[in-house]
Amino acid sequence: MRLPTVTPQTRYNLLDKLRIGPWLILAILATFVVALLYPHQLGVLLWSLSKLCWGAYLGYWIDRSIFPYARPDSFNPDKHTNEVTSWEALMLRRSIIIAAAILALGLEV
Q1: pLDDT (tens digit per residue) in 37-88
Q2: What domain range includes position 94?
Q3: For residue 3, is it within any domain?
Q4: In a domain? residue 1
Q5: Is 3's pLDDT higher than 60?
Q6: Which H or E element spans position 20?
Q7: Is residue 20 part of a domain?
Q8: How many CB atoms lie within 10 A of CB 63?
Q9: What gap in Å lies between CA 78 and CA 10, rounded to an integer?
């Protein structure tokens, strides 16, 4: 059995995936602090996190269903003359829709 070789590209991909790692560690530590100091608040924390996740999920799918033809990940700059502005506008549109869905669920609207 041959072991996979680690190339600079694979190393970059792994580091790229772990770039949010410090925030995840901080969130886990904060959850443990809440669990130690205020264990009765864990349900509230779980409820808030679930609303945040549902808002992000619903916002993403709302964007995909409203704009099925204009997805940022399938944008082909060769077909457009002003590729940077068009791609940035698609990403900005998606982030605004997702942020609106998160805020709506977070504010219990």
Answers
A1: 999 999 998 999 899 999 999 999 999 899 887 776 666 656 655 555 577 7
A2: 8-106
A3: no
A4: no
A5: no
A6: none
A7: yes
A8: 21
A9: 28
